[in-house]
């Protein structure tokens, strides 16, 4: 038991510090459980090799994998973006309408498409709504993330956490969730949370990003941008842009070359410099002065706005924000080691990481999930970035390439995935048998299709109908989420089998001497929310559910009510930007500080803790 607690402590430290990616941490946990649980060696965790690797074959893991593919199919049709643009036309420049559009699109849709890709799809749409409506994106992006969490609690498939919790509930209580198990409470949470965001929440949000967007001023990089002219006797004459500056010795980049009133941006690496060329540099003042003294350059001023960085002849924007999601090849890499500039002919001018704006020594900084890069590139390079699942470009491309002709197919497939699970086949069979007198209809009562089967069938249908190409199904999967699930599921098993859940349950059950069952349920909701704020929501479910069930058993309460409280709390983590992936998606584009999430999320978390706990007691009883 102590060994399992030690492994949990190691996992918590690694989740919080991010010394290792979360999926690698989960695999480490799995390895430790198996190494310390091999019969005949030490057997300290009671986890065999078969149990240790069971997460990969677990129905929750496979179901989440299938749902990610289905969500990708929906996004390929552009239906979410199209709805978002129609809502944009409705919203105009009225903040209340913009909030209603944001919540009205992201909330309901997140009940039927995994809420993480919904936010990834809508970040550019909502950012454009804000800019066109003369509103700071900071007022809309946290509501986007929070509303997607509300919507994720409308159905079983709204979030991977629900699917995982259902699997754990089936194992512990032999009571999995049905498709619409908690929809009635989910609707209440969505309505109450939406009212809060539209009346109180947005007033607590500062305008971190200026209404009149200008990236140069927003990222405060004026002092890091300098124009210099190549003198007639400069040693740079005849060298290429790539070779002109020793990037080992100088933290500087040549962003543009202006020659005879013509401006050139990436790719300019092989352009040969001539006397009289104006070079636009990204470097701090001391570095610029060293270059001027050493390379015979003449200072020519500083660009002060984004317009000065975008060539007049460029048909589209050349400056964009790019968010790094989980699964991106950039995560854990630096700009230098990832060869980002060479791959995409793009230059990073600055980036935001966990609320900090980084402007110097960027090449060596490790990129983390949720970091937002300010990128300068040619329009075609930006198009390539927007079409790559490794990035979320915070503005929609001018002419997005969607398979709109496949919208009916994708919609019908998702309806089938949900419908075949939701239909009460036993009731239908009995009713038909009674109406027709045909006993064969009674066989329908034996038909029970789990979400795993319908989701996999939906994947096949997506490919067969051309909604997805076969090669796209592998790119659609967030493999870090899959490995996280596979690695963390055995930890919950070890907590049960070693008696760790019994011990912790007994400690929490002691509060029953001072609190009624409703109070203990509320404590579980709050504690799960706090834990989810610092570790993965899926990890918090795996750790907390066995303890919740044991606590309920010891105080004589309904254990399923406690399962639901943990599930709701883990799926609605508002307190920090790192507790839920959708928060990380909006962290950079909204220009938020860490405390912005606490300021808006803490009252919301407290409000919904009361609403959810009372709702559970009313609908399912204690």
UniProtKB/TrEMBL annotation:
Subcellular location: Membrane
Name of this chain's protein: SLC13 family permease
Annotated SUPFAM superfamilies: TrkA C-terminal domain-like
Membrane topology label: Multi-pass membrane protein
Ranges of residues in domain RCK C-terminal: 213-297, 307-391
InterPro entries: Cit_transptr-like_dom (IPR004680), DASS-Related_Transporters (IPR051679), RCK_C (IPR006037), RCK_C_sf (IPR036721)
Record's keyword terms, sorted: Membrane, Repeat, Transmembrane, Transmembrane helix, Transport
Transmembrane region(s): 25-44, 56-79, 99-123, 144-165, 177-198, 412-438, 444-464, 476-495, 515-548, 560-580, 600-620
UniProt-listed Pfam families: CitMHS (PF03600), TrkA_C (PF02080)
Any GO CC annotation of this UniProt entry: membrane
Classification of source organism: Archaea, Methanobacteriati, Methanobacteriota, Stenosarchaea group, Halobacteria
Native source organism of the sequence: Haloarchaeobius amylolyticus
């Amino acid at each position: 038991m102590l060994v399992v607690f030690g492994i949990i402590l190691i996992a918590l430290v690694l989740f919080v510090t991010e010394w290792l990616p979360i999926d690698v941490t989960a695999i480490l946990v799995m390895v430790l459980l198996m190494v310390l649980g091999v019969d005949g060696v030490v057997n300290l965790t009671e986890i065999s090799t078969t149990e240790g690797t069971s997460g990969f074959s677990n129905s929750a893991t496979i179901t989440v994998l299938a749902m990610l593919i289905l969500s990708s199919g929906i996004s390929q049709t552009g239906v979410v973006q199209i709805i978002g643009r129609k809502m944009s036309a409705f919203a105009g420049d009225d903040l209340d309408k913009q909030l209603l559009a944001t919540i009205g699109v992201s909330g309901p849709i997140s009940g039927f498409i995994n809420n993480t890709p919904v936010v990834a799809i809508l970040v550019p749409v909502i950012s454009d709504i804000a800019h066109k409506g003369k509103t700071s994106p900071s007022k809309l992006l946290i509501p986007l993330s929070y509303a997607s969490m509300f919507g994720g609690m409308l159905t079983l498939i709204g979030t991977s956490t629900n699917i995982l919790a259902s699997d754990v509930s089936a194992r512990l209580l032999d009571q999995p969730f049905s498709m619409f198990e908690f929809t009635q409470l989910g609707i209440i949470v969505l309505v109450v949370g939406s009212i809060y965001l539209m009346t109180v929440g947005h007033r607590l949000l500062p305008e971190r990003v200026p209404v009149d967007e200008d990236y140069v001023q927003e990222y405060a990089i004026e002092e890091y941008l300098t124009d210099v002219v190549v003198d007639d006797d400069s040693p740079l004459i005849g060298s290429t842009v790539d070779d002109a500056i020793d990037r080992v010795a100088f933290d500087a980049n040549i962003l543009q070359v202006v020659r005879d009133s013509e401006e050139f941006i990436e790719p300019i690496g092989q352009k040969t410099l001539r006397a009289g060329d104006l070079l636009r540099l990204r470097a701090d003042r001391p570095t610029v002065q060293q270059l001027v003294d050493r390379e015979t350059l003449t200072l020519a001023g500083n660009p002060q706005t984004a317009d000065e960085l975008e060539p007049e002849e460029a048909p589209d924007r050349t400056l964009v924000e790019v968010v790094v999601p989980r699964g991106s090849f950039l995560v854990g890499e630096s700009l230098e080691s990832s060869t980002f500039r060479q791959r995409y002919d793009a230059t990073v001018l600055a980036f935001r990481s966990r609320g900090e704006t980084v402007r110097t020594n960027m090449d060596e900084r490790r990129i983390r999930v949720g970091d937002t890069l300010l990128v300068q590139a040619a329009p075609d390079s930006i198009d390539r970035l927007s079409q790559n699942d490794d990035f979320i470009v915070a503005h929609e491309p001018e002419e997005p390439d969607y398979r709109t002709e496949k919208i009916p197919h994708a919609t019908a497939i998702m309806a089938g995935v949900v419908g075949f699970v939701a239909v009460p086949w036993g009731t239908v069979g009995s009713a038909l048998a009674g109406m027709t007198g045909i006993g064969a209809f009674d066989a329908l009562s034996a038909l029970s299709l789990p979400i795993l089967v319908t989701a996999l069938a939906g994947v096949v249908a997506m490919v067969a109908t051309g909604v997805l190409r076969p090669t796209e199904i592998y790119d659609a999967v967030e493999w870090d989420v899959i490995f996280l699930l596979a690695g963390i599921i055995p930890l919950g098993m070890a907590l049960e089998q070693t008696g760790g859940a019994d011990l912790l349950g007994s400690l929490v059950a002691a509060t029953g001497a001072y609190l009624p069952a409703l109070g203990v349920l509320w404590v579980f909701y709050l504690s799960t929310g706090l834990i989810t704020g610092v570790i993965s929501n899926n990890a918090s479910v795996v750790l907390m559910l066995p303890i919740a069930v044991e606590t309920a058993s010891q105080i004589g309460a309904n254990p399923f009510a406690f399962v639901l409280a943990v599930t709701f709390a883990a799926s609605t983590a508002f307190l920090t930007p790192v507790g839920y992936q959708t928060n990380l998606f909006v962290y950079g584009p909204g220009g938020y500080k860490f405390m912005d999430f606490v300021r808006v999320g803490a009252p919301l978390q407290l409000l919904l803790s009361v609403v959810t706990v009372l709702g559970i007691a009313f609908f399912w009883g204690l």
